[in-house]
Amino acid sequence: MLNIPTQAFPAPGSQQRVAASGNSARNKVALKPGHSLMDWIRFSKSGQDLTGLRGRLIEVTQEELQKHNTRSDCWTCIRGMVYNITPYMDYHPGGEEELMKAAGKDGTDLFDQVHRWVNYESMLKECLVGRMATKTATKAIIPPPALSPTFTSPVAPLTDRDTLPRYDWFQTDVTVNVVIYTKRKIPSSGCTIVDFEAGVFRLEVLLGKMSYIMHLRLTADVKESLSVQTACAVGKIQVTMRKLVKGKWTTLGQPLEFHNKFLHKKDQVPHYRDCVLLSKTDVNHNTQLFRLQLPRGTVMQVPVGKHVYLKALIQNTEVVSPYTPVGQNLAPASNDSSQESDLYLMIKVYPDGAFTPHLNSLHTGDHISVSGPEGPFSLRPLRDVTHLYLIAAGTGFTPMARLIQLALQDSDTIRNTKLLFFNRQEKDILWRCELEELAANDERFQVDFVLSEPCENWSGGKGRVNLSVLKEFFDRPPGSKCYVCVCGPTAFSELTTGMVQQLGFREEELHTFLG
């Protein structure tokens, strides 16, 4: 059974929280007062001995690691380094039960499944016990190829070279053109991220659970402004760069790590670039629309349903949090290239949060690190869908915004899109006027608002999410092909997802976003 908190549904939720993963539906637990992330940062820097070794670093054998497997004495190993995580138990957002799964053993795989992008070295540096002892071998050992420690088994098996992406390049006296043949259809919202900085060209094409990477130090300098053209139907991408000095190149450049490789996305550590805050606009009483400008040498196409990570140094600790990009509004996407180069994030500010107060303190012109697109959502299941049902609570609306745009502007099959939007009070509703205007002007879109704490004159839906409300929401005409997306606080999403399945929707007809 689900362990659902007693708080009223739907509490205004957020996709924006520390220590969450794009691939995890991990529960958060209620922490004791004084045990937030910021409290942990302060405690870890208090000078107390958090290892129990009085500042010594030791070499830890497998046998020694296994001895420390209890709640009061808990060690774990991450990428060859051993940490005493006992002091961190009460501060972990996922609860001690999650940490105990790695007690007395190597927790690398578990860590990577839940939050591989977290800078654990910074978070747990005061808990470092030492390094795992190297096992001696009786047979000769052939050293493996040198791999970056941030990748594990990254290269896809080369079983069918005919389906693997490849690249080619051509040039004129003034331009260099790189062409990628993905050998599959790609989404109209794009799936290419290009970064050029200090002579290094990095390109990533997101292709389902995989990504194709080019990584080169170019033969000569090019201008920072790049252009990307995409032929979605045939899966062709062309990147055009203008040379600083006219002339012919003999080679494109010198290959760097993982150049021309097809990699498992889940095994990659996010690549960050430095962005500038252009503006903050109020959406409601506690939510703002942040507009971020990418570097001049970056082109980032964010597929619908993906999120990015923001990273900041707060009290000498790297803090990372996921956010789902939205459009500037719900209007059709602009063709203005300057608009396309900006990133819009709808963020609810929590006064006692670890990350959003820092964001709220930023001024126009300040910088923040932004990752490329992440997350497991795929548009593939929507190819033949006729009816799209979206269920959101609070800022769980953010992934729905671009889904609505996609359904109304780019889909050839979706005939009807319905949004069921839960909030506590009327003032909490995000983009209410725009949603109502869109519903009034396009018969293919409907929106229903439900409030758990309505005022006396509220004429819309009232209460919490329940089977009765969902039954009324789903109409499922005969012959229709339906798909359901859910996003909100973790407990809301779990409860709603269970009810949706009770109403007959199969697992392949349902996607739950990180809440």
Structural description of this entry:
This protein has 515 residues and is an alpha+beta fold. It has four domains: 96 residues, Roll (Flavocytochrome B2, Chain A, domain 1), CATH 3.10.120.10; 107 residues, Immunoglobulin-like (Sandwich), CATH 2.60.40.790; 100 residues, Beta Barrel (Elongation Factor Tu (Ef-tu), domain 3); 133 residues, Nucleotide-binding domain of ferredoxin-NADP reductase (FNR) module (Rossmann fold, 3-Layer(aba) Sandwich), CATH 3.40.50.80. 16% of the residues lie in helices and 30% in strands. The chain has eleven helices and 28 strands. The strands form five sheets. Strands 19-18-22-15-16-21-20 form a seven-stranded antiparallel sheet. Strands 8, 9, 10, 13, 14 and 17 form a six-stranded antiparallel sheet that branches. Helix 8 links the parallel strand 23 and strand 24. It starts with 36 loop residues before the first helix and ends with a strand. The N terminus is likely disordered.
